[in-house]
Amino acid sequence: MSVSFSEEREQLRGVVREFLADNADEQAVRRSMVTATGWDPAVWRGLAEDLGILGLGIPEELGGVGYGFAEIGVVCEEAGAALLCAPYLATVAAAQTLLAAGDDAASADLLPQIAAGTVATLAVTESDGRWEESSVRATAERGADGWRLSGQKMFVLDGTTAEIILVAARTAAGVSLFAVDGAAEGLRRTQLATLDQTRRQARLDLAGVPGRLVGEDGAGWAAVGRALRLAIVALATEQVGGANRVLNMAVEYARTRMQFGRPIGSFQAIKHKCADVLVEVESARSAAYAAIAAAERPDDQELALVSSLAKAYCSDAYVHAAAENIQIHGGIGFTWEHPAHLYFKRAKSSRTLFGDPVHHRELLAQLL
Questions:
Q1: Is the residue at 143 inside a domain?
Q2: 281 with 312, same domain?
Q3: Given 7, 22, 143, 196, which residue has the most CB atoms within 10 angstroms?
Q4: Across-strand partners of 189?
């Protein structure tokens, strides 16, 4: 697959961009981020029912529309540009985990619900915040009435509102994957205080929570690992969308803000800032699109390599672009009323999600 997008995908981009402009503009983001859920149910229904966005990566026979990961990348890029407040990334990660697990019965039961708008998420990390198999300490034991899960999960995306939670837990056979009902007895969900108010995270405490085994006992990490790689690609593409938006914001301000009788964009220091950010944004775009191309192929080793490269580069590029946007805007860029700080907070939060650049450079060194 080429890293360029086809005409059909660009049409999808236009539809998503128009929908977000009409339903998820800056004022909508500000309203959503202070609500109890952190997102607008009407916007979520629109994504699911009007656009069919939630079924993009799900086969038609399982309630989806049967497209590939490139289409998910298009949506993520536009969502990042709009700073969308919605559990889209969490739900994509959960859906891809189910597909990777190869459990036909679980997929037939759960994926149609996700495509129709049921919020889902993936719970992997614990107190150490590491996205690694060795860090999974939550346990699952099988009794007369089925599997019961105990332990704690941290930094779960949209964990307080998810209706389906896929939990990585350790059994006697190894790390396994379990589907847990968001309203299950014994499950306590606590919203975490986060820098980025546009994306909610939660702590999950599990005390004998009933769970459904997804896939084979002890074989869960293979599915979780691939799904995390795909989620990393989706996040990198989202970061590109955000970085491009703040670049455009900075350039537009530099063109119109007058100082000493001339636009500040005519000053060499501002020119250099904008040029440096442009190079980084376009390089990040190339890395993210290459990762999307890898996600379309079955080679897990290539996906591991390119996804880590994209995550490391796109994370740093987004943070730098968001910071320079604030600097170019000067005093107004530091105010609560201006959206620059919202993008900066999303950039900083996304930088650590699924592992920070240092972690992914270490993975790259190991892979190479």
A1: yes
A2: yes
A3: 196
A4: 204
